[in-house]
Amino acid sequence: MQSRAWTSAIISSVFFLHPQYCSALTLQEAVIAADNYDSTILAARNLNDAQQQKRIQGFAGLLPVVSLNGAWSKQDQPKASYAAGVTRHNAAVNVTQPLFDLSKYADWQRGDAIADEAQVRYMLAQQKMISDVSDAWFTVIYYSRVLDNADKARVAFEQQLNSASKALAIGEQTRLDVDEAQANFDKSVADVISAESQLKDAKIRFERLTGQSGNSVPVSGMDCVTPKKLPQLALLRSRTESQNLNIQAAQFVMNQSQADVVAAAGQHLPVVTFQASYGNNWSRAEDGNVLDDVFGTTSKTRNTNIGINVSVPLFAGGSQISQSIEAAHRKEQAKDLLIDARRQALEDVESAWSGVRAGEATISAYDRGIVSAKKRMESTQYAYELGMRTTIDRLNAEKDYFKSLSDFANAQYEYITSNIKLASATGDLNYAWLKKFTCPARY
């Protein structure tokens, strides 16, 4: 009895010292906080911003290249008066414009595909962040309920143990009843300790993702979770094929490989470039004389050049043919990966859809189970008072009731998880979607 008193004191002190909930967050607020805090999503955002420059870089290869060139030099030949201390300087503006260069066109297409893939990868990172934060959010709520149910069971079993011990002392209970009550109480204490540890881990994970206290998660966050009408699987499959982000990413990788094939083919074709320049050249000797005028060491000229350059590849040791074959194989690889991404997405949506359906049925069943278990507990208690049921029967009825509460909370958690997976597979998982599971905060 003394050990039980110490155990009760320890558990009571834990709850008394447990920090109270600070200002409540909604699920959307938690995700927004993570969007500005989580290092993974911040890194993904910076990578996306960097990769978007590939679009500009690729298109820039099709535009003119304009440069300004200048030079200054001095030549000194003291023994040649016409070349003594001659300074020369020039300045010119050069313009180069590709007219036909398939490799630059391929670079443009590849840059677009890389930027598009980066955008999709960033959206995938956002989906993962939303999924992780949502899971952490509901995990905190779930283990809060598990801990609450475990503590209620501990209190009930402690009362029964005290009652059985007193009854044994006056000969109204058997040792078996006391031992059964003791076993249930000890198990409930272990359940409380386990639930506290799991809840602490869940809060740590939530804080790591969002930078917000795990105590800000309202314990009523799953109260409004009720099964809603589930769309037909055929409709979800169609939506998945058009919206799934993994499929879109694989498609943009395919586009990149197609651009590589075009670039490899361009190495066998001529390159036509328009070139133009305009500039001045000056030269002047320090000791100018008649010879300078004759030999032109003191002069000023203006040059204007316009032309078209054509470069025709003939032979490069076979590397161009090898690169074309390599590009073709990589395109086939990208095509296979696209098919695999599509198959995996359809498998994921069917699995999640089945999970949501099962979750609907499970929540409904456990909801009815709670009512039945409570009625059974009340009936067993009444029968016990009439002498028609034993203490063990009463303990088992109470144990089943508390288990039904935990089973119902677990069913809600699994249902939410399946919904998140389904939204991720169909490409619908975003900030607005979270309203589906946002409950008014209450305590």
Describe the protein's architecture and organization.
Helix content is about 65%, strand content about 10%. It is elongated. It has a domain at about 1-35 and about 100-140 and about 210-270 and about 320-435: Outer membrane efflux proteins (OEP), CATH 1.20.1600.10. It has a four-stranded antiparallel β-sheet with strand order 1-2-3-4, with no helix packed on it. It is an alpha+beta fold and about 450 residues long. Mean pLDDT is about 85; it is low at about 1-20.
In which range does the helix fraction lie?
A: 55-70%
Radius of gyration: 39 Å
Largest sheet: 4 strands, antiparallel
Q: Could you state the CATH homologous superfamily of the domain at 2-36 and 102-141 and 211-269 and 318-437? A: Outer membrane efflux proteins (OEP)
- The end-to-end span amounts to 35 Å
Please tell me the CATH architecture of the domain at 2-36 and 102-141 and 211-269 and 318-437 by its name: Up-down Bundle
The shape, in one word, is elongated
Low-pLDDT residue intervals, each spanning 5 or more residues: 1-22
By helix and strand content, what is the structural category?
Answer: alpha+beta
Please state roughly what percent of the residues sit in beta strands, choosing from under 5%, 5-15%, 15-25%, 25-35%, 35-45% or over 45%: 5-15%
CATH topology descriptor of the domain at 2-36 and 102-141 and 211-269 and 318-437: Outer membrane efflux proteins (OEP)
Order of helices and strands: HHHHEEHHHHEHEHH
Report the mean per-residue pLDDT as an integer. 84
- Lateral strand order in the biggest sheet: 1-2-3-4
What is the CATH C-level name of the domain at 2-36 and 102-141 and 211-269 and 318-437?
Mainly Alpha
In total, the number of strands is: 4
Helical run tally: 11
